[in-house]
Structure formats: C-alpha cells, structure tokens
Amino acid sequence: MKAMLIHNYGDDAVFEAAEVDTPEVKSGHVLVKIAASSVNTVDTMIRKMGQELPFAPDAPAILGMDFAGTVEAVGEGVSGYSVGDKVYGCAGGLADLPGTLAEYIVADAKLIAHKPKNLSMRESAALPLVAITAYEGLKRAGIEAGQKVLVHGGSGGVGHIAVQLAKHFGADVYATGGGEKQLALIQQLGAKGINYKTESVEQYVAKHTNGGGFDLVFDSVGGANLTNSFEAAALNGQIATTVSMCELDLTTAHFKGLSLHVVFMLIPMLHNFRREEHAEILRNVSQIVDSGGLTPVLDETHYSLEQAGEAHARLESGQGMGKIVIDN
C-alpha cells in the first residue's frame, strides 16, 4: 500500500511517499481502507519533537491518528462489524500503533465505531480525537443541564466540539475567541461569544454571571490560560483542561475549592487501558451527530495523501478554520 513515512523527526522533518506492506488483520482488530484522515496538533508535535515525546513511534513512522473508512476484513473475536461497514476512530500514529497516513490501517475494534450516518467520510474523519476529548472532559466535570459553561478556545478543533456538546447536554454556553471570524463561528454554533482580547475575565464574569462565575470551564487553551479558568470559575466549580504541561500557582483554585480534570485522551491507545470507553464515546457521538446535535467544522482546504506535509503546515500556520482533512 501507499504510505507517507517520516524518516527523521525535527522542525524540518518531511513526509516521503513509500510502498509498504499492507497490514494483515489480527485478532480483536479490523482492516480498514481509509477514505480520509484528519490532522491534530499532537500529530504536528510528534513530527517535530519525535523522541522528546514519550509516545512518539520509532522512525521510520506512519503518523496520523484520526480516520474514517470501510471495513475490508474482520479479525477473530470481533463482533458488531462486517466487511463493508463504514467506521471511524482514533487508533494509530503513536507508540507501536501505525498511523492513518496510509491506504489501510489495522485498528483495534475497541477504538472505533460506525461512523455517523449523516456525515461524509471527510467530516467523520475530523471527529474522533477532538470529540472524544471534548466529551470526556465535559462528562468528567459532571456537566448538567442548566449550568453556565465557559469554553476557552471555542472556535478551535476541540473547542468547537465542546461548545456543541455542552449545548446538547443542556448547558448555557459561552466561549472565548480572539477575532471576528472566531466569534462569528462561536455564535453560529449556538454559544455567546466573548472576545478575550477586549474583555478581561473580571468583566465577562460580571457581565454573564453577575460575578458568580461559571459552573464549568472547559479550557482547550490551557497552560498559562488555566489561571484565567480559575478566575472565571464559580465557587466549587469544575475545570476540564486538555493542556496542563506547566507550572501553576493553585492558590485561587484552593480558595475557591475548584476541581481540576486533566484530559489526556491518548491514554487508552498508549496503555491499552479501557479502550472500549473510546468506542462507547464514539457510538454516543454518532447518535448525537445523527440527532442534529453536532456538526464538525472543516477547513476549506483539500489535501491528498501526498500533500500531508502541506496539511501539517496549514494547521501550524493558524490560518485554518475548522479541522484539516486529508483525502487518503
């Protein structure tokens, strides 16, 4: 099969087209012909940082985590899938799991689900990593109908899904963005937009919560922004974050009695730990999509497998709006 390989990691790392053996299906897995895959920030981090990250695969490597495609073979012990089924998932591109920048992938059946009926392959491929991340964060933070929820980075890959899921779960949703395009998308998704460049945390907390703070803050920006999340949260509030590799002063979190939930959605893939929970989330996401509660936003660009490097560059440029998808 055709695959795009990384032979050396680093800032100047390039993808090279190669012919490699098509993987053979094995017990507990399915062989999928990939129709589309999407690019996530973690993919670009692996390409540049390589072995500095404990979960980077050994080079030469096939990167890429998200995919949508058609089942071509079903391994022993797998139930619920047949040849010809349309599926999606996040199942490779790190550690010892070959990735999705190829024509085929052998995916653990516990990491996939039937794709949403109402979405194309391209749209379905955009969802797995970001949808699992957003869903897990909101659920772990105990989202409930009627809560005031703030999403930091509401127009981003994870953020724009978190906004829609929070709405689906019945919350009153607000989201930060830094420009007209971002705020327009946030409003379009059904949340109230907050321009973090022109409004301070104190100002928007006063304006939208009468100074009481948000019941739940989903922080897809993280890092130094977590202090803004602590400031924006209500007493005994819940914070879910996807980016927490940093040193922080937790004093505000202490005096407010906040709970912090760190979401690292790669854990099931890396450690073969509760992988079936990812399949369950993806099944739930498919239902939410098909009921009209969630639609991924795709960047306007189109890339072929051979243009994987350009797709990575597009994500890193910050010029994209929505998920960047590759047509495999």
UniProtKB/TrEMBL annotation:
MF terms (GO), sorted A to Z: oxidoreductase activity; RNA binding; zinc ion binding
Location of this chain's protein in the cell: Cytoplasm
Keyword Membrane recorded: no
GO cellular component, as recorded: cytoplasm
SUPFAM superfamilies cross-referenced by the UniProt entry: GroES-like (SSF50129), NAD(P)-binding Rossmann-fold domains (SSF51735)
Keyword DNA-binding belongs to the record: no
Pfam families listed in its UniProt record: ADH_N, ADH_zinc_N_2
Keywords in alphabetical order: Cytoplasm, NADP, RNA-binding
Domain of life: Bacteria
Domain Enoyl reductase (ER) intervals: 10-326
Subunit description: Homotetramer.
Protein name per its UniProtKB record: Zinc-type alcohol dehydrogenase-like protein
Natural source organism: Gimesia algae
